[in-house]
Design brief:
627 residues, alpha/beta, 39% helix, 16% strand, disordered N terminus
């Protein structure tokens, strides 16, 4: 069954006020591995080529940001975390609710709807598709009434889970890659209802020192200009001539071009003053928004959260974290460190962790806690675990699945070799091989060529080991062995390409001057060197030694998603639905219902303290009936 429109459907030519009422019924997701083709976009700004020189700048900023991210220099020092009661009042005022209530649910006097997105703002065309996805109203299975459906409107609160834009979440990148495509989607779905936007930062937000992040999420100190009320729908990249003219004019008169003071999402008001917050959604459902910066939670944040937990031990905590506690069926050191800093025991106590950072959807239960990873807001896809499962076992839900992930992985070496991921691997191979081939041609000696090839092998091994990050994950031996094999293969390439070029030109009866001959050898060595590097990082993912680099290079646009949540009117539970697009750049992408489950604020009656949470896998029955 494909996604379809149901009762309330209004044709596209209708006025925006009516179009906002259209209701979409998502279909079931296709079986793992059955997806055939995926579209890509050439529109600007395109997806980041992570092995390109522009992305290399973001890595440099990462190193600089990490160097200054210490207890002595911390941007969180000057922040004033919101008193939860005042934050509830601020949210209530923005949403038209009653002030002076303990929770958002009580302030509104009805159920509360929340949308969650993470890892947004990469390819603008993908962001446009995601914008249409999360701004829609859906007909979804009702977990409180099996066999029936409910109308799930766009959320009162829009939550961001970090990494607002790529490669660095600067004001310009957030504007062009997130705000503009989202505002274009929102412009057609204005319904007059006020909403709020909140978020926590990820590492890419911190690369810019939270400057861009604050322009989206920090509460505005004054009214915004009328022309900015609905947010920008014109990309800076689409108005370059205007920028140049403005810069020239300011330069002549001795002024400077200023950044936008605010980055506006149409119809949404920011309400927070700090990069972390605590928001009681219901009397017994409290949302903890955590910011671990680039290293760890600071003392003020630990104190802020621990005091609240001690004062409200009966409340069920929902932790919004950028770093998951578990990724790819392994413990995730940054996520574990954050949990330990808050003195959490995920295996023994009941928590719901809602995270991004990893660009796929996964839900698993570990002990009493439920862990949801939903980083499908726009950034390039990450795979499911392809290697054999660990002691944590397989997740309850994984999207995409391992079969498709394995199939996509086969394309990585060729994607890199053809330069589609950027030209840094080719530049490194050029630096390795040009001296080797030059020495061989200059001295006319196989021994000299072999010596230079050995040097290239050593350099290739070191670079490959660095990309494997074995020193961080305690897997030095297998990564070093695989890097050594790859380095050896790369070291043989100058000799192999010289031999192959002689044989090929001889068979074709072609004679070349030394210059073109050397250039041909060098280009062949660089191409196959990049191919070898691509095969190496693909092997790391296939064996479970490193999970990010291969699919980062692939920059796959598929499997985007968000989570729509409902705080039930009685505050007893949180219902969650993950809705996605398999191929967001297809001509007419149809939403699919990836997952649906319920997380209860308290254990079932009579279960006792040692019980596991009410099994969220029961909602899978709703999905089966949905199919």
């Amino acid at each position: 069954m494909s996604g379809r429109m149901v009762a309330g459907y209004v044709p596209p030519e209708a006025p925006p006020s009516l179009r906002a009422e259209a209701v979409v019924r998502p279909g079931p997701p296709p079986a793992d591995g059955t997806e055939a083709h995926f579209a890509r976009s050439s529109a600007e700004p395109r997806a980041v080529a992570w092995f390109g020189f522009r992305a290399f700048w973001s890595h440099l900023r990462h190193f600089v940001a990490s160097a200054i991210a210490t207890e002595d220099i911390d941007s969180r020092d000057w922040m004033h975390p919101d008193n939860p009661a005042r934050l509830v009042d601020r949210v209530a005022r923005a949403l038209g609710g009653e002030r002076g209530r303990f929770s958002v649910l009580e302030a509104l006097g009805r159920e509360v709807w929340v949308d969650f997105l993470a890892d947004t703002g990469d390819c603008a065309a993908v962001s446009a598709a995601v914008g249409k996805l999360w701004t829609a109203t859906y007909e979804l299975p009702d977990p409180a009434r099996p066999g029936e459906t409910l109308r799930a409107p766009r959320g009162d609160v829009l939550l961001f889970g970090g990494d607002t834009a790529y490669p660095v979440a600067s004001a310009r990148e957030i504007h062009d890659r997130l705000c503009v495509p989202f505002n274009r989607a929102l412009a057609g779905r204005r319904d007059g209802r006020p909403r709020v936007v909140m978020g926590i930062p990820g590492n890419h937000d911190w690369y810019d020192g939270l400057d861009g992040f604050a322009r989206v999420f920090r509460k505005r100190l004054g009214e915004i200009a009328p022309e900015q009320e609905h947010g920008s729908v014109v990309s800076d990249r689409e108005s370059k001539l205007g920028q140049v003219a403005e810069w020239a004019e300011k330069f002549v008169v001795g002024k400077h071009v200023t950044k936008r003071k605010t980055l506006v999402l149409d119809g949404y008001s920011p309400v927070q003053y700090a990069s972390y917050f605590l928001l009681p959604l219901a009397p017994n459902l409290h949302l903890y928004g955590i910011d671990r910066q680039l290293r760890s939670l600071d003392f003020r944040q630990r104190k802020y959260f621990s005091h609240w937990r001690a004062a409200h031990p009966e409340a069920a905590p929902v932790f919004l974290t950028h770093d998951p506690v578990y990724t790819f069926a392994d413990p995730n050191p940054p996520g574990l460190a954050a949990a330990r800093a808050l003195e959490l025991r995920p295996e023994r106590e009941r928590y719901l962790f809602l995270s991004g950072d990893i660009h796929h959807y996964e839900r698993r239960e570990v002990g009493k806690s439920t862990h949801v990873v939903a980083g499908g807001g726009g950034a390039g896809l990450h795979p499911a675990r392809i290697a054999p499962p660990t002691k944590l076992g397989v997740p309850l839900v994984a999207w995409p699945g391992p079969r498709l992930s394995r199939r996509l992985l086969r394309a990585v070496p060729w994607h890199i070799a053809l330069g589609r991921a950027g030209l840094i691997p080719h530049a490194l191979c050029l630096a390795f091989f040009a001296p080797a081939l030059g020495i061989g041609l200059s001295f006319g000696s196989i021994g000299a060529l072999d010596a230079a090839s050995a040097a290239a092998a050593v350099a290739g091994t070191l670079v490959c080991a660095m990309f494997g990050q074995g020193w961080r994950r305690g897997r030095f031996a297998p990564i070093a062995a695989l890097a050594g094999v790859t380095g050896l293969a790369m070291g043989l390439l100058p000799t192999a390409t010289a031999w192959a070029t002689v044989r090929l030109l001889g068979r074709l009866n072609i004679t070349l001057a030394p210059g073109p001959y050397a250039l041909l050898e060098l280009l062949a060595a660089v191409f196959f060197g990049a191919l070898a590097f691509g095969a190496y990082i693909a092997a790391l993912t296939a064996t479970g030694l490193e999970q990010h680099q291969a699919f980062t290079a692939l920059a796959h646009p598929g499997f985007k998603h968000f989570i729509r949540m409902r705080v039930r009117a009685d505050g007893s539970a949180l219902d969650l639905w993950c809705i996605g697009l398999v191929d967001p750049l297809a001509p007419n992408p149809t939403p699919v219902l990836v997952d649906a489950f319920t997380w209860h604020a308290s254990p079932p009656a009579g279960a006792g303290d040692d019980s596991k949470p009410p099994p969220s896998r029961s909602s899978l029955g709703h999905l089966e009936s949905w199919v």
